[in-house]
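Consider the tokenized backbone below.
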């Protein structure tokens, strides 16, 4: 869609940035809603991050997304940071307030929760303990989302135990018990669980498969993989094969973009089958 001189502007800062799917996501919505706006990739080197963020209001940008390696470093540059970004220690969305100040937030938590709401509406925090595999940035967002949903127990297993312990400490809330399980005992940890979430890179294209014995997992449990290339990971195929409901990771990517788009462009966007289809096409081998 052609833009005019009055177009609203947003984008995504990263280093490198060429691989980002966010311009395709926001471009789809801009087109779908006929908005006079543009969402552009912004290749910003780490040492230029502050300068680039401070330039946003000067350039008339409404805000931007942030990806690797800026998600942590941007926190201290913001004028205000939302509760999730603060607790997680990472942010992905900047909104320029009317007075030109910078507001930082973490919408991955929203993305995880909304994806679950859409793909597994029957899940509730009362369905039983959660088992979370991994302890990186994605695991932090997932644990924050699960505790915000009111879950009483989270069992965390990570190859490097110390990282899981740090996560459990940083994201502790009085209402939830977060226990660290040895990585070798991830299969046993599934006993009685209501939801299993893989946040590791295992099962991703060009990565080793996630090996886990699902025998102890109740048939009623939901299995979520935040990996989305491939969409159907070995874990999700195994889960479906034994009757568990499986939730893929593409929806989290799409839903996390909604709050930023709404703030910058003024329309609340939807995650539709057409959007999923268009985004999947960007993962085809030709890309
Ligand atoms: P992100 O921010 O996307 O979560 P990350 O911080 O690199 O990415 O985390 C990747 C996760 O996958 C980590 O939990 C990592 O385990 P370690 O903390 O031990 O590194 C996990 N992971 C990656 N490769 C793995 C492997 N071969 N076996 C087990 N876990 C692995």
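A designed sequence for it:
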């Amino acid at each position: 869609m052609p833009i005019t001189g009055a177009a609203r502007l947003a984008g995504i800062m990263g280093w490198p940035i060429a691989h980002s799917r966010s311009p395709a996501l926001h471009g789809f919505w801009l087109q779908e809603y006929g908005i006079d706006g543009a969402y552009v990739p912004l290749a910003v080197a780490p040492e230029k991050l502050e300068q680039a963020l401070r330039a946003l209001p000067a350039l008339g940008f409404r805000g931007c997304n942030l990806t690797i390696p800026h998600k942590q470093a941007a926190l201290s540059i913001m004028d205000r940071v939302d509760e999730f970004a603060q607790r997680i220690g990472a942010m992905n969305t900047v909104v320029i307030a009317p007075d030109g100040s910078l507001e930082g937030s973490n919408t991955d938590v929203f993305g995880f929760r909304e994806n679950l709401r859409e793909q597994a509406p029957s899940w509730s925090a009362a369905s039983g303990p959660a088992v979370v595999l991994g302890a990186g940035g994605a695991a932090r967002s997932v644990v924050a989302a699960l505790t915000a949903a009111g879950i009483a127990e989270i069992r965390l297993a990570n190859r490097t135990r110390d990282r899981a312990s740090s996560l459990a400490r940083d994201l502790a809330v009085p209402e939830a018990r977060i226990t660290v399980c040895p990585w070798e005992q991830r299969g046993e940890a599934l006993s009685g669980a209501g939801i299993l979430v893989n946040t590791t890179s295992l099962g991703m294209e060009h990565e080793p498969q996630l090996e886990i014995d699902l025998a102890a997992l109740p048939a009623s449990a939901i299995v979520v993989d935040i990996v989305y290339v491939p969409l159907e990971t070995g874990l999700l195929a195994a889960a479906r094969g034994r009757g568990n409901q499986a939730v893929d990771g593409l929806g989290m990517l799409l839903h996390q973009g909604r709050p930023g788009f709404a703030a910058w462009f003024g329309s609340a966007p939807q995650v539709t089958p057409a959007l999923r289809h268009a985004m999947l096409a960007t993962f085809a081998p030709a890309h």
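The mean pLDDT is 96.
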